[in-house]
UniProtKB/TrEMBL annotation:
It catalyses: 4-amino-2-methyl-5-(diphosphooxymethyl)pyrimidine + H2O = 4-amino-2-methyl-5-(phosphooxymethyl)pyrimidine + phosphate + H(+). Catalyzes the hydrolysis of 4-amino-2-methyl-5-hydroxymethylpyrimidine pyrophosphate (HMP-PP) to 4-amino-2-methyl-5-hydroxymethylpyrimidine phosphate (HMP-P). Keywords: Hydrolase, Magnesium, Metal-binding. Its EC number is 3.6.1.-. This is HMP-PP phosphatase. Pfam families: Hydrolase_3. It is an enzyme of class 3 (hydrolase). InterPro entries: Cof (IPR000150), HAD-like_sf (IPR036412), HAD-SF_hydro_IIB (IPR006379), HAD_sf (IPR023214), HMP-PP_phosphatase (IPR023938). Belongs to the HAD-like hydrolase superfamily. Cof family. It comes from Citrobacter sedlakii. The active site is at D8 (nucleophile). The lineage of its organism: Bacteria, Pseudomonadati, Pseudomonadota, Gammaproteobacteria, Enterobacterales. Its cofactor is Mg(2+).
Amino acid sequence: MARLAAFDMDGTLLMPNHLLGEETISTLSRLRERDITLAFATGRHVLEMRHILGAVSLEAFLITGNGTRIHSLEGEVLHRQDLDPAVAQIVLQQKWDTRASMHVFNDNGWFTGEDIPAILQAHVYSGFRYQIVDIKRLPADQVTKVCFCGDHDDLSRLKTQLHETLGPRAHLCFSAVDCLEVLPVNCNKGSALTVLSQHLGLTMAECMAFGDAMNDREMLGSVGHGLIMGNAMPQLIAELPHLPVIGHCRNQAVSHFLTHWLDNPHLPYSPE
């Protein structure tokens, strides 16, 4: 029996309308009743996640910013990691050959250089939004991560540019088909979950995790029981072919799987 369950949010726990379904909330509460620790591992900001948790009255550890921050149940910072200021300076100041928009995150919030109302759709229920600033003026020593949003093919070309420029000084990953992130070296959800499990006196073998994108790869591959969403990025399924694939987030597949796991742990599972 797993002692900790870690969940990605977008494309995993959240439905396509960016809400937690009632079945999902009920199932997560059942996990807590079984003394299974919850951890939400997401690219979203801790300020937004606190609002979401408060709205559904769930207690959970928070791994936010794709592993750049870990917060306790009480809101205490257990772990933090920022981009190397020299790397952040390059990313913010260099002119990249891309049509993608740039988004910068630190403990104070989300910053971008232009108004993009459509991108706020994913945050409509939390009310979390960007602040429009001159990105080149942001302090390079206060950058947690940088996210580029746009067309996937364009972002793939940008990833090549970033890799050629930054080399091993940053971790690049797709947190969604249309989101490319520049993260600190060795910073990902898997490394953050390792830190959290050690803090709790657990092993990664005692953890289970759910995810759908390439930023979930390290986490899913390092836990005792990793599960991939049916709506996952094909690259993720290809890189972790040994892991089971469950149903689609629109059908609250995490709840469907966990209900079976709690009630019929010895029977085979069939996706909904």
